[in-house]
Amino acid sequence: MTIFLPCLLERWRGDGKSLRTRPALNTWEDVRRDMIRNLEWLLNTEAPLFLAKDAAGNPCAIPEAVADSVLCFGIDPYSGRPQSSMKPEEIRWSIHARILAFETRIDRHTLEVVPLDPADQHRFNKLRFIVRGELRADPLPLEFAVQTEIDTESGRAKVDNCDGGARHTAR
């Protein structure tokens, strides 16, 4: 079995007085649980629309090389936007791209982000998606599926586990 280290924030978590370190993850269920938690962190963080302003005070476009860096961690801001202006298909592709940029344990060829509500039916201030795919596990991939709900009023995202646990898939 391959040993994965938890993310740096997880390894350095503490109570403010002392740092506790967490050992390497020993099971694929640990890796899966941490990946789902990291998805929730990603979906609850708004990426900046711009990082700097020019001499005239106008926002500068974010360079492509910076867009996938930790400086732009998060998803596009959806809070405060009218729901009628949000197209589920565009939001789906945006979330898909952000997950691929920041969660490298997911096999990019298996990641799916599926809107739960049809484009012509809006749930009041909610965007709901199923996110599913496979973790790059050894010797067999590990499936996962979560349901996400983004509240467009507050910007908060909730991630709920959809499947009953870890399942390795044969290829």
Helix content: 10-25%
How many helical stretches? 4
Q: How much is the average pLDDT?
A: 79
Strand proportion, as a percent range, falls in 15-25%
How would you describe the shape? globular
Task: Give the tally of β-strands.
Answer: 5
Question: Low-confidence segments, ≥5 residues, pLDDT <50?
Answer: none
Taken in chain order, the helices and strands follow as HHHHEEEEE
Outline the structure in words.
- With 171 residues, the protein is α+β, with helices and mostly antiparallel strands.
- The protein is 23% helix and 18% strand.
- The protein contains 4 helices and 5 strands, in the order ααααβββββ.
- It has helices at 8-11, 28-43, 64-67, 88-102; strands spanning 112-115, 126-135, 142-151, 157-161, 167-168.
- A hairpin with a 6-residue loop joins β2 and β3.
- The longest helix has 16 residues, at 28-43.
- It is globular.
- The chain starts with 7 loop residues before the first helix and ends with a strand.
What labels would you give this structure?
171 residues; 4 helices; alpha+beta
Brief account:
This protein is α+β, with helices and mostly antiparallel strands and 171 residues long.
What is the strand and helix layout of this fold?
Blueprint: H1 8-11, H2 28-43, H3 64-67, H4 88-102, E1 112-115, E2 126-135, E3 142-151, E4 157-161, E5 167-168
Antiparallel strand pairs: 1-2, 2-3, 3-4, 3-5
